[in-house]
Specification:
The complex is a heterodimer.
Chain A: E1 4-7, E2 10-13, E3 19-25, E4 31-37, E5 43-50, E6 53-57, E7 64-70, E8 73-78, E9 87-94, E10 104-105, E11 109-113
Parallel strand pairs in A: 2-11
Antiparallel strand pairs in A: 1-3, 3-8, 4-5, 4-9, 5-6, 7-8, 9-10, 9-11
Chain B: E1 3-6, E2 11-14, E3 19-21, E4 23-26, E5 32-38, E6 44-50, E7 56-59, E8 62-65, E9 75-77, E10 86-93, E11 100-101, E12 105-110
Parallel strand pairs in B: 2-12
Antiparallel strand pairs in B: 1-4, 3-9, 5-6, 5-10, 7-8, 8-9, 10-11, 10-12
């Protein structure tokens, strides 16, 4: 019954490694997002995909590459991990049509780079 | 650009106390306003929202009124419980495409 699910929940890895975080939503939404929450709890959007197409790409290093195989999935791949990438990453989804739509969030993936 | 400013935390209260968490915003146009809550170890959940000026959002005893004249959306609850301990985020957006979040306010309720 989980609406937006992310895996893994925790990820500890060494600097320089490449890792992926997976996200799936079963709400039938057209739009999916990745947000980053830093250690001070600041939440900032990274990417937004609508029907598998990138529509928002904030100032994120190109080591971060989102991939959307279908509109129910939006995975985040990170190359050459750095210490500063340590954060909690949240996936979210929303309907693409209509004003004042809300976003539904996953539980988050806590990434720790050592 | 759009921005949201929340009162700095952490906020610590005793059970049954009155809660106010301030939120002010700057925005172009007429965005919707949201309060999200993040319980320990969990993702964000929508707590309440208001889509136009003077609207009041309410849920689980929490309320917030969209005040255009003061550009505010303060969160209030008359009597808090230990289970309300969480981080609360104020956010705005015309739709969910590009929500802008405040910095979050950590609330701890002591029995």
């Amino acid at each position: 019954d989980t609406a937006v699910s992310q895996t893994p929940k925790y990820l500890v890895t060494q600097m320089g490694n490449d890792k992926s975080i997976k996200c799936e939503q079963n709400l039938g939404h057209d739009t999916m997002y990745w947000y980053k929450q830093d250690s001070k709890k600041f939440l900032k959007i990274m990417f937004s995909y609508n029907n598998k197409e990138l529509i928002i790409n904030e100032t994120v290093p190109n080591r971060f590459s989102p991939k959307s195989p279908d509109k129910a999935h939006l995975n985040l791949h990170i190359n050459s991990l750095e210490l500063g990438d340590s954060a909690v990453y949240f996936c979210a989804s929303s309907p693409s049509r209509g004003q004042n739509t809300e976003a539904f969030f996953g539980q988050g993936t806590r990434l720790t780079v050592v | 650009g759009n921005s949201v400013t929340q009162m700095e935390g952490p906020v610590t209260l005793s059970e049954e106390a009155f809660l106010t968490i301030n939120c002010t915003y700057t925005a172009t146009g007429y965005p919707s306003l949201f309060w999200y809550v993040q319980y320990p170890g969990e993702g964000l959940q929508l707590l309440l929202k208001a889509t136009k000026a003077d609207d009041k959002g309410s849920n689980k005893g929490f309320e917030a009124t969209y005040r255009k004249e003061t550009t505010s959306f303060h969160l209030e609850k008359g009597s808090v419980q230990v289970s309300d301990s969480a981080v609360y985020f104020c956010a705005l957006g015309r739709n969910a495409q590009k929500l802008v979040f405040g910095q979050g306010t950590r609330l701890t309720i002591n029995p």
